Amino acid sequence: MSLSKKILLSKEDQRALEIITDLNKPRGDGVKVKLKNRLHPDQIEQLKPLYIDGKKDLFLSCGRKWGKTELIGYVLWKHALENPGSACYYVGPEAAHARKIIWDGYRLQRYMGNDTQKYIKSIRNQEMMIRLTNGSFIQVVGSDNYAVANGLTPSIAVYDEFKAFNPRWHVEFAPNRAAKAAPLIIIGTKPRAGNKNMDQYNEILEYMRNDPDSYVADRTTFDNPINHLPDQKKIIDQEISQLRARGEEDVVQLEYYSRVVPGGKQAIFPMFRRDKHIHAHEDLIAEIEKDRKRLQWVWIADPGNTTCFGMLFAAYNEYTGNLYILDEIYEKDQSKTSVGIIVPSGKKKCHEFYPQSSIEDDWLKGCDDAAAWFMTEAMSRFGIYFSPAEKWKGTKEEGLSVIKDQLIYDTVKISDRCRNLAEEMEKYAKDLHGRIPKKNDHLIDCFRYLNGMIHYDFNTVQEAVKKKVEMHDGRFRGFLDEEYDSPDDWTTGIMDDFDFD
After folding, report:
1. Quick check: 33 and 40 in contact, CB under 8 A?
2. Are strands 309-317 and 322-331 parallel, antiparallel or unpaired?
């Protein structure tokens, strides 16, 4: 057979190749950044679970200008073209809003530019429907018309800005979608605190996080390379500067970084980030294992008679300035908050972290000074002395300020066991009058008492920062050589880089 013999494609293969080519031609600003595909690299990465890994559903929380509308057009057109006779739905919060976003500007009808026309049979403007020559259609609808949802049978559906949906839409629409195992793509920015659809949004997000057939991801404005073009970047920088000048850092984090600051402008710990400050428990234990006998071990209690009994368990490396919060007790069941039950539970955790340790000699123990009943009973029944916090707690404002500094300069690491501490910190916010709340702060109070007991203040933070820099430069030696047989046996695993920002 001649090597020059041409291999002819069938008409079906030729059509499939033509569709792929038309769908993936770089267009618009993508040409400026020399994209080889219609989508930018991060959009492609987020669609791999759907097209390569076999996932059925996607939940993408995106910052502004990430490119969600472009991705939506790609998903709908790709499915409609490759699956003849399919019903493809774009669902927006309201039909009128959806018309403005994706229809009136012809972003959907002319998605592939001039190449689009050869695939279209008709366009019905009133119904916002595109009928294709292969029997498929793409239709734009609004969640406000939830009455029609149970009459639709989708092949694929995209929810745009689900945070603003009428809650009844998904209830009516979901059974029909499930009947055909139709893929669902939920995409948009995250809701702010108080959003009317917050509960449903979080419920479905949590379900998809735990569903093996689903994929969940957060994407930022800056994951789109087009936003690094000088003109685009200038506009975005100006927008962020204006928001920050108005004190709206919470909006900046939400809209551009897809991060929720639950307390908004009133948040007391807006710098707290789970992805930065919360660590896998086993990783923290491995990090402190080599220094177990040289650490200060601390057990702090905030007893509550009628609300909640909180405790924190921590280890402090006074040589590096690193504080490790390893576990918590957060008990609301009043039948389990008696001293006879909760103190043994605390002792058990102490011995888990520091086996064969002496609770009396090896652990610093502190307690809210208002709970004299607890201190007295713990001493009389178990011989365990909890020092009252009044000796070293300072003002509440001072204590919260130290915690902020620890978070900003990354001198505290919190175990993923401390779920309630993380939740308290995320939701802790001043009231409308700018006052610090006196509720839902049991573990935050423990955190304050903990810092007071080990004399951790802003100077300690600054010293810890200095030591990190010196260790990075190889200049940190001195008196530590006398404390350790080898300086290297405690520096292993300490983070190599430190970013002042």
Report:
1. yes
2. antiparallel
CA nearest 396: which of 452, 440, 434?
452
141-171: pLDDT as tens digits: 999 999 999 889 999 999 999 999 999 999 9
Q: Could you report the per-residue pLDDT of 266-310, keeping only the tens digit for each?
A: 788 888 888 889 999 999 999 999 898 899 999 999 997 667 899
Strands 120-124 vs 129-132: parallel, antiparallel or unpaired:
antiparallel
Q: Give the bridge partners for 298, in sequence order.
A: 314, 364
Please name the residues in contact with 467: beta carbons below 8 A apart, sequence gap of 6 or more.
319, 320, 321, 476
43-69 per-position pLDDT tens digit: 999 999 999 999 999 999 999 999 999
CA neighbor of 35 nearest in space, from 220, 274, 229: 229
The predicted model scores a pTM of: 0.60
Q: What is the mean pLDDT of residues 309-329?
A: 96
Beta strand 296-302 with 120-124: parallel, antiparallel or unpaired? unpaired
SS3 130: strand
Amino acid type, 224? N
Q: How far apart are CA 68 and CA 43, in angstroms?
A: 8
Q: Long-range pairs for 17-24 at CB < 8 Å and ≥24 separation?
A: 19/81, 19/82, 19/119, 22/112, 22/115, 22/116, 23/74, 23/77, 23/78, 23/81, 23/112
Report how far apart, in Å, the C-alpha atoms of 478 and of each of 60, 456, 472, 475, 484 are: 50, 22, 15, 9, 11
Listing DSSP states for 214-235 in one string gives EEEEEE-GGGSGGGGSHHHHHH
pLDDT in the model for residue 482: 37
Percent of the chain whose predicted confidence (pLDDT) is above 90: 59
Hey, what domains does the chain have and what are their CATH numbers?
11-226 (3.40.50.300), 276-491 (3.30.420.280)
Distances 19 to 45, 77, 368 between C-alpha atoms, Å: 21, 10, 69
pLDDT (0 to 100) of residue 471: 62
Q: Is the dihedral of CA 286, 289, 290, 291 positive or negative?
A: positive
Q: CA 330 to CA 71: how far, in whole Å?
A: 43
pLDDT beyond 50 at 85: yes
Q: Which residues pair with 184 in a beta bridge?
A: 57, 157
Q: Looking at residue 476, what is its pLDDT?
A: 41
Quick check: 299 and 361 in contact, CB under 8 A?
no
DSSP at 37: S
Q: How far is CA 323 from CA 272, 455, 464, 483, in A?
A: 15, 12, 10, 19
